[in-house]
Amino acid sequence: MARPLARPLARRSHGHCNGIVAGEASHDALSVRAIVGFVPEGDSVHRTATALRTALVGKPTVSFNAPRLVGPTPAVGRTIERVTSHGKHLEIVWDDGITLHTHQRMTGAWHLYRSGERWHKPTRQLRVAIEVADWAAVCFNAPVVETYRQFDRHRHPGFGRLGPDLCQPNADLEECIDRLLDHVDPSLPIAEVLLDQHIVCGVGNVYRCEVLWAVGISPFARVGTVSQDDARDIVQTAARMLRANLATDRRVTVPGMREGLAVYGRNGQRCERCGDTVQVKRIGEMNRLLYWCQGCQARGDQRVAPTPPHGSERPMDPHPAAALFLSELPWRRAADGDDTFTNDIVARDTPDPHARPA
Predict the structure, then answer these.
(1) Binning pLDDT at 50, 70 and 90, where does residue 238 land?
(2) 292-330: buried (b, 16+ CB within 10 Å) or exposed (e) per residue?
(3) Choosing from 4, 40, 189, 219, which is the catalytic residue?
(4) Active site includes 88?
C-alpha cells in the first residue's frame, strides 16, 4: 500500500475549491498529473475514470481499504473489470458483480499513485484505497462511498433514472431538451434545474453559470417559461463546453478571455460582454454560489428586484462597504444613469471664466 504523508501537501490554485488528481493514459505508460483549483464536474470525473481505467482494469485486487464503506467489501484477488463515470458518479466493477460507487460532490478527490509512493493527503481523509500490481487508487473526502452486488444504476435508490451524460459523444441531446421542458416543477429557476442529474449529467456549478451567460438567459428564469429554442441552445452549449474540456487541465469556457471563464468566480468584476458588474448570490437547497451578469442576462428574469438606492447594501454583498465600492465603479454608475462621475471630470478640466488669473 502507498505510504501516507504525516501531513497533507497544499494544492491550491487561484483561490478556488479543491480539485482532483487525475491521469492521462498512453499505450506505454500512465502519466499522473494534478488538476487543481476545480470543483469536480462531469469533465474532470470523466478524466479521472480514464486514468483509473488504464491503471486498474484487468488486474487482480491486492488490497482494499474503505473505513466508511456502506455495503459488502470487494474480495482480495478479484479482478477489476471496468471503471465508468456518469456525471459526477464514478463506478468500479469487479468480476464477481461487486460495484464500488463514489460521488465526489464538492470535496471528494481520487488520486493515483505508483505502488509505495507517498500520498499527498493524510490518512484521516482516506475513504477508499485500492491496490493492484504497480498502482494504488486512493479516494479522499468523498461523502458517498458504497458497494452493491449486480449494480444497476437505473434501479439505484438515489439515482432514479439519470439524464444523458453530456460528456459522452453519443449523448441524446433531444432527450435532455425534453427532460428540461417537462420538468416536474415549472416554477424552479433554470439555474437550479441544470444541476438536477435526472435532467442532464455532467453540468456542475461552474458550467451552469457559464452556460447561462453564454446563451444570455437569466439564471432566475423559471424553467416552465423557457422556450424550446432556448432549451436547445442551453443543452447544446453545455455539451460543447464539457466536451471541449475533456482533454485539458485548465477549464476554459470562453477562449481568449482571461482565466478562461466569463462569470464564475468574477464577482464585482466588469462583464466582458456588456460592461455591467458580475454578481453573485447563493441559491437552491445546497446554497451554491451562482454568478451572473444582470446587464446581459435579463431575459426571462421574473423577479421583482428594484435598483437599490445609491450606496445601500445589496443581497450579494456581505458588508455595506462592498456595496458602496461596487456602486462607485464608473461603469456601474454609468449604467444607473448617474452622470456625477463624468460631470466631476468635466468640472475639473473646464476653466472657470470668472476666476482671476494666477
Answers:
(1) very high
(2) bbbbbbbebbeeeeeeeeeeeeeebbeeeeebeebbebe
(3) 40
(4) yes
| Spatial contact of 34 and 112, defined as CB atoms under 8 Å apart | no
Residues 112 and 42: their CA atoms lie apart, in Å, by 19
Question: Can you tell me the distance from the alpha carbon of 283 to that of 281, in angstroms, rounded to the nearest whole number?
Answer: 6
Query: Half-sphere exposure of residue 193, counting CA atoms within 13 Å on the CB side?
Result: 29
Catalytic position from the list 47, 53, 88, 222: 88
Domains of the chain: 20-155 (3.20.190.10), 173-262+283-302 (1.10.8.50)
Q: Which position has the grid cell 487508487?
A: 137
Q: Are the C-beta atoms of residues 201 and 77 closer than 8 Å to each other? A: no
Q: Which residues contact 216 (CB under 8 A, 6 or more apart)?
A: 296, 297, 299
pLDDT tens, residue by residue, 311-348: 444 444 445 556 556 656 655 555 555 554 444 433 44
**Is residue 41 annotated as part of the catalytic site, yes or no?**
yes
Q: What percent of the chain has pLDDT over 90?
A: 35
Three cell numbers at 192?
437550479
320 is known as an active-site residue: no
Instruction: Write the DSSP symbol of residue 89.
Output: E
- Strands of 126-132's sheet in order across: 63-65, 126-132, 135-140, 109-114
What pLDDT is attached to residue 229? Answer: 95
Answer yes or no: 288 catalytic. Answer: yes
Catalytic residue among 208, 243, 288, 332: 288
- Residue 135, pLDDT above cutoff 70: yes
DSSP-derived secondary structure letter, 287 = T
Rounded to whole angstroms, the Cα distance separating 56 from 110 reads: 13
List beta partners, residue 288: 283
- From the centroid of its chain, how far is CA 103? 13
- Listed in sequence order, the residues at least 6 apart from 260 whose beta carbon sits closer than 8 Å to its beta carbon are 250, 251, 252, 253, 254
- Confidence (pTM): 0.51
C-alpha to C-alpha distance for 186 and 200, rounded to whole angstroms = 16
The continuous run of DSSP H or E covering 146 comes out as strand 144-149
